[in-house]
Amino acid sequence: MAISTLSALKQPVAALSIDEAKLHTFMASAIPGFPKTSTLSVLQFSHGQSNPTYLVEVKAAGLEATRYVLRKKPPGKLLASAHAVEREFKVLAALGKVTTNTGGKIPVPRVVCLCTDSSVIGTPFYLMEHVNGRVLQDVNLPELPAAERSAVYTQLGSVLADIHSVDPAAAGLGDFGKVDNYAERQVKRWKRQYDASAIGEGKSDFMEQLAQWLQANIPQTQPRGSIIHGDYRLDNMVFEGNSTQVLAVLDWELSTLGDPLADVSYCCMPYQTMPGMPALAGLDMENLSEGIPTESQFVAQYCTRRGIEFPSNVWPFYVALSLFRAAAISAGVHRRSVDGNASHSNAALLGPLVGFLAQRALVVAQGPPLAPPMPPAGTHVLPEASSAAGLFPLPPRALQFRDRVAAFIDEHVMPMEPHFIEHAASTSRWKIPPYLETLKAKARSAGLWNLWVSKGMKDLLLSREEGIPEELLGPGLTNVEYAAVCEVTGRSLIAPEVFNCSAPDTGNMEVLSRYGSREQRAQWLLPLLRGEIRSCFAMTEPAVASSDATNIESQIRREAGGHEYIINGRKW
């Protein structure tokens, strides 16, 4: 859902109210050209959890109303390093003057003035110009067409990459933070803030386990010295009303110098949380909206923009660190709710999130590295096919089939691949295109069919005398010979299916061949060998894809004493 930057306003509650007369006096003295005979009104934005944020509208006779946004520290006892509006003002002022490597500007609001005198409205605050646009609150972007969803996420990653590419010293921010041992300091900082604020539902044993894991797994090599936002996410962006152009990045309270991958992983939190969660609602990973990139694709786009390597091996650490930080922040918001000085109505709901986020982080921490996305077809140079298996040359028959398959692909398959890519992105993508069946018929007629069937399996099926035609069982290649063919078919998105050699059908046909009953082979194996039907490898968990059962995330753990087990996970 998109909201205007002039919506979601309310009258401040008593604890967060502002003395408008004192504010008016301050603005009249601090802002050049401020109309002294003007009137001033203040409303509070209902979104935002940390620093209370207000719309200040100034009206004067004969002049158009001027709007400002005011951000202030919340009242009450605060943690020493939290709610740093002074730092937020400093980084916005500096970035507003920066020109990026591509000649553009970092999209930030123009700051107007900073007040550190708590006697004015109770706590330090700063004023900036109001940016008129829209804020996209739902990361699933259900109201946008696929092309706009893609553009929004491209902008999300590109702007972040541009921020991280700014030279801090050149921007006047060389002293904005320490640059060494960022990850280690972050673990200590958020552990300290969690310990100081966690009470009741905001406490979790999983946080202790997670803190220990993070401290033991800090990457040995870390990027250093980038300006990082600290809370970079979609709903901190202001987009133009009728386009996907980013007008402003908001909420710089947690900005500092440090490891840019911490920013990227925090931006990717929606890939780890669930839809409908308070404050941290996630993507619907079971039905990811068309146009929204996968986590791997988003990270790859960011890395390409910055010209850096894809962070496969260290990614689980940074995701776990981001979840740890989100959990610590949630504990703090929950504590302020208990103390009666929270700035949002649903702050009390964040207590139970602490344990969920920490538990999710432990699952990610023990999981595999992030695999880079497969490059699009046609974007890379194809290597020469192998002519040997290790130190030994391929036999003539294997070379013959490899060359025949390569020639068939060049003549018949590759010309149709652009049509298939277009079809896969259309609303008819779940319907089999007629040209695919035509290609399969040509491959079968050419004797290039079921090349995956090994000689041993072919002999087994023929020995049963169940009426399976020999021409359906291919040439009976060895695994090494078939591997040379796979090098060629793997160059195309559709070639494996054209030759009836695509997963999961091949694996399922092998299972039916070796372990199926006569009736099962007649009902399922024969149509699969003919290419008349497709099959699937069904997983038991909604968030697990592919045919690799090791991707299943559900875990069972025996409790101390051995009398109870804890099972964590989701099943269909």
Automatic annotation (TrEMBL):
GO MF entries: flavin adenine dinucleotide binding; oxidoreductase activity, acting on the CH-CH group of donors
Residue span, Acyl-CoA dehydrogenase/oxidase N-terminal domain: 467-532
CDD domains for the chain: ACAD10_11_N-like
InterPro entries, sorted: ACAD10-like, ACAD10_11_N, Acyl-CoA_Oxase/DH_mid-dom_sf, AcylCoA_DH/ox_N, AcylCoA_DH/ox_N_sf, AcylCoA_DH/oxidase_NM_dom_sf, Aminoglycoside_PTrfase, Kinase-like_dom_sf
Residues of the Aminoglycoside phosphotransferase domain: 42-276
Name assigned to this protein: Aminoglycoside phosphotransferase domain-containing protein
Organism of origin: Cymbomonas tetramitiformis
